[in-house]
Amino acid sequence: MDDGEATPVHDTEAAVNDVEAAARRFVADVWNARREESVYELVAAGCPGLGGTGPEAVLAWHRERRAAFPDLRYKLVDVVAAGDRVALRWRAAGTQAGPFGPVPPTGRVASFSGATFLRFDPAGRIVDVWHATELFQLLQQLGVEMLPPLTGP
Fold first, then answer.
1. Three-state SS at 139
2. Looking at 7-141, which runs of residues are DSSP E strands?
3. How many Cα neighbours within 13 Å face the side chain of 144?
4. What is the C-alpha separation between 153 and 151, in angstroms, rounded?
5. 63-100 b/e (C-beta count within 10 Å ≥ 16 → b)
6. How confident is the model at residue 81 (pLDDT cuts 50, 70, 90)?
């Protein structure tokens, strides 16, 4: 019998919506808007980053990218959320104004693709991050010459 009240959203569906919203906020705030304070709300202490774990290590990774590409911008292409995980497929573009690993500044604009996979704890904070980036595509655009290894004696 219908008593006129709305059916509540299932907890699992609400949790998936929450982690998807947190993942989108991570990209919008941290990757694009440089709102570093958001990292402390979104990232758990044990989350791996550059040279350590936690919000500061995650910020170190993003700061390193920003030093190389100060105008770097990400656009989400696909977002898939299931349970405590979110997969992001993205495109990025920026001008290389600083060193990128061993590559000195080129002043070139590069556009590249990648995917990021996030896992969240029950409190909705990121506890694991894994990236797959089209690094070869990026390095080619920066003018890095790719040579096959020497073979033979």
1. helix
2. 48-49, 52-53, 73-82, 85-95, 109-120, 126-133
3. 18
4. 7
5. ebbbebbeebebebeeeebeebebebebebebbbbeeb
6. very high
Run of H or E residues at 59: helix 55-68
* Residue found under tokens 């033979």: 152
Please name the residues in contact with 18: beta carbons below 8 A apart, sequence gap of 6 or more: 124
Q: What is the pLDDT of residue 147?
A: 82
Categorize the per-residue pLDDT at 2 as very low, low, confident or very high, splitting at 50, 70 and 90.
Answer: very low
Amino acid, single-letter form, for residue 84? D
pTM of the model: 0.83
Tokens describing residue 95:
């001008």
The four Cα atoms 130, 134, 135, 140 give a dihedral, to 10 degrees, of -170
